[in-house]
Amino acid sequence: MINGQKIVVVMPAYNAEQTLEKTFNALPHEVIDHVIVVDDASDDHTAEVARKLEGVHVIRHSSNMGYGANQKTCYSKALELGGDVVVMVHPDYQYEPRLVTAMASMIAQGVYDAVIASRILGTGALAGGMPLYKYIANRLLTAYQNFLIPFKLSEYHSGYRAFSRAVLENLPLEENSDDFIFDNQMLVQVIAHGFSMGELSCPTRYMKDSSSISLARSIKYGLGVLLTTLEYKFSQFGIRKSERFAREQRRAQR
Known about the structure:
It is globular, with a radius of gyration of 17 Å.
């Protein structure tokens, strides 16, 4: 716990048998109450590796449902276990697991409702091996969203994030995609529904055993970001109501 708040780490996994244990071992277990691994019907032995890790709650989808669907399962289980602060850590060891303490503290101490770990702050992204085309796409898409959304972030595309229980209970996450665009939709929801959000700098590691989506999936994600932003703007201006970003979903008191 941190400040009396129960900390739950969720790990949406797919073909992560090579890096799952290393990521788990690097977590700051002294502040974590529960760790959840959801295996999205991996082709390898991810679930078997997860079950050998002490104290881990393991869920395995019977079929591949997608990255977004995996997160929905993660957050549902985290709330069921009584999590007050939920931190999503990718099990591919691309992000620094030790930052869980800092991210969770920012929420547990009441500073923010949500926190993302940015690869862009400082010089971490390219130094950590992020492909140049992904870096350029990240910067262009983030600039586009910073221009159209009244909330400035160094990047909208980090997969390392933490949320308060109030965020997870009040956002209509089931309205979001089951694919990779879920990440971006969720961050825009946080903003649309009036929750506060902070950032901290995070080194990143792009290695052979780290997961990375293909160029085609990256292009699909980029188009999804463009459409998500327009959907948000149309909803805010009352041009076309979106259940994802509807203003009727009001922020709950923490």
